[in-house]
Design brief:
34% of the residues lie in helices and 18% in strands. The protein is of the alpha/beta class. It has one domain (41-338): Metal-dependent hydrolases (TIM Barrel). A five-stranded mixed β-sheet has the order 1-2-13-14-15. The protein has a five-stranded parallel β-sheet with strand order 6-7-10-11-12, sandwiched between helices. Helix 3 (60-69) links the parallel strand 3 (42-47) and strand 4. Helix 6 packs across helix 8 and helix 8 (193-209) packs parallel to helix 9 (221-232). The protein is globular and about 60 Å long.
Length: 402
């Protein structure tokens, strides 16, 4: 291809001619003469597409289109749905929607417990062939014995157990980080211990059972250190954090629901520990925890708004602008955390999928232009570098902005 040398290649096993040969000549002509970055399709192991049950927030179609617009070609959907996918019967409605409406590869989680209530294990054996992993995301499993029992089944089934780590008794009605901002502005805080204490327990159980354990959206310095030590001790553990935890702190909070997520934005010391963990390999991958809500649900300030922000369409530009360009994290580290690392851990195969980015182009974050139904992002109004021009999933163009 005449224009292939104009594209910056970061993957030595990517053949430009093979990759570009799937594109129509009109698309190739649009790219000709530009300077672009070609990346393997991004993979996000933690998204909420809300369907079935809450399609007013998001659908398989809108969520997967948001993924495509952000360069993602594989996403894993969390099970806090209605019905909760805790049986094959309940999972089937989601599988039907995915088959009909998904623009990219969508891999569902199944719930760990019936109804995500933390009381009885779901039908893990029947569900295992059809799901990417098990999780009660949004709720921490409070029972040690039930979590141990689940991990033992997970070990036998060879499936990852992904945990939202939260000790309910330590929450005390909090909704932002228990730090200076909460104290000054009279908000109820969520202590860091509510996260790391549960991780500490789960790491002990993971070592005991030998299961594949994955920690969702870590946010505290203690969590990083616990996981670092566990890895050195041979525990089969991986973890993720999100772009907002790597780039924002509670100093950035505003009295606006678009800054409310769970776990909350933590302190500068926590952010520094997360960055160190990403650099030394303690943190394996970056996931968005894309969690859309209606405008009404996010319009009630920090105290009253629902937890959750959207992130699929801003993830790479945020990471590139705030971490790569200042020289804090290398581009290679970011790309691995978005591509190879999640695929390896969750056994998600790669295919003829990629995205093309104009790294020199700047764009103001305008939620009204999102593909997602969700509009709440803490990055609204910011100018970021990096615009996705094209996303190809399994040889098919699923997004273009040329």
């Amino acid at each position: 291809m005449a224009n292939s040398k104009k594209i910056l290649n970061l993957q030595t096993d990517f053949c430009f001619a093979d990759v570009l040969s799937c594109l129509p000549e009109a698309v190739i002509s649009s790219l000709r003469g530009g300077r672009y970055a070609l990346f393997p399709g991004f993979c996000d192991v933690h998204v909420h597409f809300r369907e079935p049950g809450f399609s007013y927030k998001e659908t398989i179609r809108t969520g997967s289109m948001a993924a495509a617009a952000g360069g993602y070609t594989d996403v894993c959907t969390m099970p806090n749905l209605n019905p909760v996918p805790d049986s094959l019967e309940h999972l089937q409605s989601q599988l039907d929607l995915i088959r009909k409406d998904a623009a990219v590869h969508v891999h569902p989680y199944a719930a760990l417990t019936v109804g995500e209530k933390g009381e009885t294990l779901a039908d893990l054996d029947a569900l295992a062939p059809y799901v990417v992993a098990f999780s009660d995301d949004g709720r921490g499993v409070q029972s040690d014995s039930l979590m141990r029992q689940g991990m033992q089944r997970g070990k036998a089934l060879g499936k990852v157990f992904a945990a939202h780590c939260e000790v309910n008794s330590l929450l005390r009605g909090g909704y932002i980080h228990d730090g200076a901002y909460a104290k000054v502005h009279g908000h109820r805080g969520i202590c860091s211990e509510s996260e790391w204490r549960m991780i500490e327990r789960d790491l002990r159980l993971a070592k005991e059972t030998g299961c594949k354990y994955h920690v969702c959206h870590i946010s505290t310095k203690e969590s990083v250190e616990l996981i670092r030590k566990a890895k050195k001790d041979g525990v089969d553990v991986t973890c993720e954090t999100a772009p907002h935890y790597l780039t924002l702190t509670d100093d950035d909070l505003q009295e606006d629901g678009r800054f409310k997520m769970n776990p909350p934005l933590r302190s500068k010391a926590d952010r520094e520990a997360l960055l160190e963990g990403l650099l030394d390999g303690t943190i394996d991958l970056i996931a968005t925890d894309h969690a859309p809500h209606s405008s009404e649900e996010k319009a009630k300030g920090l105290a009253g708004s629902a937890f959750g922000v959207v992130g699929l369409e801003t993830a790479f530009p945020v990471l590139y602008t705030k971490l790569v360009l200042p020289g804090i994290v290398s581009l290679q580290t970011v790309i691995r955390a978005l591509t190879d690392a999640p695929r390896e851990r969750f056994s998600i195969p790669s295919d003829n999928s990629f995205s093309v980015w104009d790294l020199d182009q700047k764009c103001v974050v305008d939620p009204e232009r999102f593909q997602s139904k969700g509009r709440a992002t803490p990055f609204e109004g910011e100018t970021l570098c990096g615009v996705c021009r094209l996303t190809v999933c399994d040889g098919k163009i699923v997004y273009q902005n040329l």
